[in-house]
């Protein structure tokens, strides 16, 4: 059990924080690439899950048996797709990463409102136990709301200059905030549906093992796969944007990568290659081919030459490596979050994710990870931003403690 929890927390904090770093690097250079980034993330997670959830028969491929019926997944897929797409699309409207992180942590007020509304209309949801909120819970949510408001105002006039139109800047910024607000609403509904799903079909532990090879994978793996795989056809609605974004990244700056070839392979393929001398290599990355071999060990301008070893020289768009790292870290992040949702309630998940976002905030603002070394920190009022972040964290912790105490008292009464 300790190992399972350690793995889950490592995926959540290591994967998600690394993902935030690569996402900031991408969106700072290509702010309108949100749809393409989301599509790459969904694709890599779907491909990774195919081997666990699809089997080949004499009639072709088919899905393995599921622990949860398809209908609850279809509802979650639509909500999850819009949440992911809207969160990444908001970067095109000049939302600083710091504001993006803190604003997404303000989902408690949405969850409380939706829980209050829907608890009166159904007896199935697990949230029925929270249909009446204590004063501590309400106060904590108000603190979170105040923190989100302060954070939003801390960058209410971003990227202004003497030549910029303040009205236009404000309108663009408010559009981005509206997109993030809509994403929070969809995320709140997603949490309700997931609570209903797991309360109906069980919340199995991550450490459970199948009795035989025909048993379906654990629920967290199944949920992660279907939420991403079933959403892929929905990207047809933004196919034109995907093509435009892919072309913009392909036509952007080019980066050169040099990879050493093992000596045994170098000795095998060298006789069939004509390796040019260093002076013949192009100095401009855009003037070179996509793939080539050279004797130079580090870069086209390096003076080091090893006559007995080859180096593979790749010319790729500068955004290719960040996108690859972003999709891989998103896979780890999604695995950690989905493992977490099957172990604890959505409230505890919210608390852990808020702490994770606080770590990402520190890495972004304090250490500058994700930004270029010569890039000035985001144009925000740092005092107001940190005050808002502290209030969000304080309110979330207070809400969790108040809910835990309330549940403990309820168990004693029962």
Helicity, as a percent range: 55-70%
Structural class, from helix and strand content? mainly alpha
Q: Which percent band covers the strand fraction?
A: 5-15%
| Number of discrete helical segments | 13
Protein name: UAA transporter
Transmembrane segments: 70-91, 97-118, 130-152, 172-193, 347-370, 382-402
Membrane topology: Multi-pass membrane protein
Pfam families: UAA (PF08449)
Fold topology:
Elements: H1 2-29, H2 34-53, E1 54-57, E2 60-63, H3 70-89, H4 97-104, H5 107-119, H6 135-154, H7 166-201, H8 219-229, H9 239-250, E3 254-260, H10 263-269, E4 291-294, E5 311-317, H11 320-341, H12 346-365, H13 382-413
Antiparallel strand pairs: 1-2, 3-5, 4-5
Keywords: Membrane, Signal, Sugar transport, Transmembrane, Transmembrane helix, Transport
InterPro entries: SCL35B1-4/HUT1 (IPR013657)
Pfam family, one: UAA
């Amino acid at each position: 059990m300790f190992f399972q929890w350690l793995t889950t927390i490592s995926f959540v904090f290591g994967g998600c924080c690394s993902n935030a770093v690569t996402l900031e690097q991408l969106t700072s250079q290509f702010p309108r690439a949100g749809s393409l980034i989301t599509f790459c993330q969904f694709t890599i997670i779907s491909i990774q899950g195919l081997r666990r959830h699809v089997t080949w028969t004499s009639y072709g491929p088919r899905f393995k048996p599921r622990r949860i019926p398809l209908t609850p997944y279809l509802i979650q897929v639509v909500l999850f797709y819009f949440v992911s797409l809207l969160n990444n699309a908001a970067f095109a409207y000049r939302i600083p990463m710091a504001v993006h992180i803190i604003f997404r942590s303000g989902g408690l007020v949405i969850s409380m409102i939706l829980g209050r509304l829907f608890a009166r209309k159904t007896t199935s949801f697990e949230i029925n136990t929270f249909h009446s909120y204590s004063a501590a819970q309400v106060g904590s949510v108000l603190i979170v709301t105040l923190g989100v408001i302060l954070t939003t105002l801390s960058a209410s006039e971003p990227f202004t200059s003497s030549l910029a139109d303040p009205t236009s800047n404000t309108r663009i910024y408010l559009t981005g905030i509206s997109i993030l607000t809509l994403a929070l609403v969809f995320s709140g509904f997603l949490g309700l549906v997931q609570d209903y799903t797991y309360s109906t079909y069980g919340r199995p532990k991550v450490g459970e093992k199948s009795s035989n090879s025909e048993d379906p994978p654990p629920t967290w793996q199944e949920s992660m796969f279907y939420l991403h795989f079933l959403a892929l056809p929905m990207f047809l609605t933004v196919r034109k944007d995907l093509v435009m974004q892919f072309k913009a990244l392909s036509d952007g700056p080019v980066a050169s990568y040099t990879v050493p070839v093992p000596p045994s392979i170098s000795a095998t393929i060298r006789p069939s290659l004509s390796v040019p001398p260093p002076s013949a290599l192009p100095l401009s990355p855009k003037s070179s081919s996509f793939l080539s071999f050279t004797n130079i060990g580090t870069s086209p301008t390096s003076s080091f030459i090893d006559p007995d070893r080859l180096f593979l020289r790749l010319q790729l768009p500068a955004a290719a490596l960040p996108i690859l790292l972003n999709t891989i870290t998103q896979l780890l992040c999604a695995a950690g979050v989905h493992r977490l949702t099957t172990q604890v309630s959505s409230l505890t998940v919210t608390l852990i994710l808020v702490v994770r976002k606080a770590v990402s905030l520190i890495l972004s603002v304090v250490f500058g990870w994700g930004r270029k070394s010569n890039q000035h920190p985001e144009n925000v009022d740092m005092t107001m931003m940190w005050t808002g972040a502290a209030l969000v964290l304080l309110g979330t912790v207070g809400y969790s403690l108040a809910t835990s105490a309330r549940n403990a008292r309820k168990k004693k009464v029962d």
